Protein backbone atom coordinates (compact mmCIF):
# COMPACT_ATOMS: atom_id res chain seq x y z
CA UNK A 1 0.00 0.00 0.00
CA UNK A 2 1.32 3.46 -0.91
CA UNK A 3 2.01 5.89 1.91
CA UNK A 4 2.56 9.61 2.26
CA UNK A 5 5.27 11.12 4.46
CA UNK A 6 3.71 13.33 7.13
CA UNK A 7 6.36 14.51 9.61
CA UNK A 8 9.09 13.40 11.98
CA UNK A 9 8.07 12.23 15.45
CA UNK A 10 10.18 15.08 16.91
CA UNK A 11 7.93 17.59 15.09
CA UNK A 12 5.29 16.84 17.74
CA UNK A 13 6.36 17.99 21.22
CA UNK A 14 5.55 15.80 24.23
CA UNK A 15 1.93 16.30 25.32
CA UNK A 16 1.04 18.28 22.19
CA UNK A 17 -1.01 17.85 19.03
CA UNK A 18 -0.20 19.20 15.59
CA UNK A 19 -1.97 19.11 12.24
CA UNK A 20 -0.27 18.16 8.97
CA UNK A 21 -1.50 18.08 5.38
CA UNK A 22 -0.67 14.71 3.79
CA UNK A 23 -0.54 16.49 0.39
CA UNK A 24 -0.59 20.23 -0.36
CA UNK A 25 -4.10 20.01 -1.87
CA UNK A 26 -5.56 17.56 0.68
CA UNK A 27 -8.99 18.65 1.96
CA UNK A 28 -8.15 17.90 5.62
CA UNK A 29 -5.20 17.89 7.96
CA UNK A 30 -4.20 14.85 9.97
CA UNK A 31 -3.91 15.56 13.71
CA UNK A 32 -1.03 13.77 15.44
CA UNK A 33 -1.00 13.67 19.26
CA UNK A 34 2.09 12.66 21.24
CA UNK A 35 2.01 11.39 24.81
CA UNK A 36 5.24 9.71 25.87
CA UNK A 37 6.16 7.21 23.18
CA UNK A 38 2.54 6.90 22.01
CA UNK A 39 1.39 8.65 18.84
CA UNK A 40 -2.28 8.80 17.83
CA UNK A 41 -3.60 10.29 14.60
CA UNK A 42 -7.06 11.43 13.51
CA UNK A 43 -8.60 13.35 10.64
CA UNK A 44 -9.12 17.02 11.50
CA UNK A 45 -12.90 16.85 11.22
CA UNK A 46 -15.44 17.05 14.04
CA UNK A 47 -18.23 14.53 13.35
CA UNK A 48 -20.92 16.96 14.57
CA UNK A 49 -21.79 18.02 11.01
CA UNK A 50 -21.78 15.95 7.82
CA UNK A 51 -18.46 16.53 6.12
CA UNK A 52 -16.82 17.49 9.39
CA UNK A 53 -15.67 20.85 10.67
CA UNK A 54 -11.99 21.63 11.29
CA UNK A 55 -11.42 21.43 15.03
CA UNK A 56 -8.72 23.99 15.85
CA UNK A 57 -9.55 27.66 16.45
CA UNK A 58 -5.98 28.49 15.42
CA UNK A 59 -3.16 26.47 13.92
CA UNK A 60 -2.37 23.38 16.02
CA UNK A 61 -4.83 24.34 18.82
CA UNK A 62 -6.32 20.83 19.01
CA UNK A 63 -6.23 20.15 22.76
CA UNK A 64 -8.45 21.49 25.51
CA UNK A 65 -6.89 23.86 28.05
CA UNK A 66 -5.77 21.02 30.34
CA UNK A 67 -4.27 19.04 27.44
CA UNK A 68 -6.34 15.99 28.36
CA UNK A 69 -8.67 15.78 25.34
CA UNK A 70 -8.83 16.71 21.69
CA UNK A 71 -11.31 19.57 21.39
CA UNK A 72 -13.53 20.96 18.66
CA UNK A 73 -13.42 24.64 19.42
CA UNK A 74 -16.33 25.34 17.03
CA UNK A 75 -18.77 23.08 18.90
CA UNK A 76 -17.21 22.60 22.33
CA UNK A 77 -16.94 18.83 21.86
CA UNK A 78 -14.25 16.86 23.67
CA UNK A 79 -12.73 13.61 22.40
CA UNK A 80 -10.77 10.88 24.15
CA UNK A 81 -7.22 10.95 22.78
CA UNK A 82 -6.79 7.15 22.96
CA UNK A 83 -10.03 6.21 21.19
CA UNK A 84 -11.28 9.32 19.40
CA UNK A 85 -14.69 8.87 21.07
CA UNK A 86 -16.69 12.00 21.83
CA UNK A 87 -17.02 12.26 25.62
CA UNK A 88 -18.73 15.66 25.81
CA UNK A 89 -20.64 17.88 23.43
CA UNK A 90 -23.10 17.63 20.55
CA UNK A 91 -21.60 14.53 18.93
CA UNK A 92 -21.84 11.99 21.78
CA UNK A 93 -21.88 8.48 20.36
CA UNK A 94 -19.65 9.43 17.44
CA UNK A 95 -15.90 9.47 17.12
CA UNK A 96 -13.08 10.98 15.16
CA UNK A 97 -11.74 9.09 12.16
CA UNK A 98 -8.52 7.36 13.23
CA UNK A 99 -5.60 7.42 10.82
CA UNK A 100 -3.02 4.63 10.72
CA UNK A 101 0.54 5.85 11.25
CA UNK A 102 3.70 4.03 10.30
CA UNK A 103 7.11 5.03 11.56
CA UNK A 104 10.39 4.21 9.89
CA UNK A 105 13.65 3.55 11.72
CA UNK A 106 14.66 7.22 11.46
CA UNK A 107 11.44 8.38 13.19
CA UNK A 108 9.56 9.64 10.12
CA UNK A 109 5.80 9.13 10.18
CA UNK A 110 3.68 8.24 7.16
CA UNK A 111 -0.02 7.76 6.52
CA UNK A 112 -1.81 5.64 3.89
CA UNK A 113 -2.15 7.48 0.57
CA UNK A 114 -5.96 7.24 0.60
CA UNK A 115 -6.00 9.58 3.64
CA UNK A 116 -5.33 12.57 1.34
CA UNK A 117 -8.84 12.27 -0.09
CA UNK A 118 -10.59 10.47 2.76
CA UNK A 119 -14.10 11.36 3.85
CA UNK A 120 -14.03 13.60 6.87
CA UNK A 121 -16.37 11.61 9.07
CA UNK A 122 -16.34 8.04 10.37
CA UNK A 123 -19.78 6.50 10.56
TrEMBL record:
Domain Rieske positions: 4-111
* Alphabetic keyword roster: 2Fe-2S, Iron, Iron-sulfur, Metal-binding
Give the molecular function GO annotations: 2 iron, 2 sulfur cluster binding; metal ion binding
One Pfam family cited in the UniProt record for this chain? Rieske
Top-level lineage group: Bacteria
| InterPro entries named in the record | Rieske_2Fe-2S (IPR017941), Rieske_2Fe-2S_sf (IPR036922)
Question: What PROSITE patterns would the database entry show?
Answer: RIESKE
> What's the protein name?
Rieske 2Fe-2S domain-containing protein
Please tell me the species this chain comes from: Paracoccus aestuariivivens
Provide the organism lineage as a comma list: Bacteria, Pseudomonadati, Pseudomonadota, Alphaproteobacteria, Rhodobacterales
Amino acid sequence: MASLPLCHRDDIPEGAARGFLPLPDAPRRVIVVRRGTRLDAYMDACPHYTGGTPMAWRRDAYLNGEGTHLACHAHGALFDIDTGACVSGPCLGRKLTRVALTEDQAGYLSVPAHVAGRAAREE
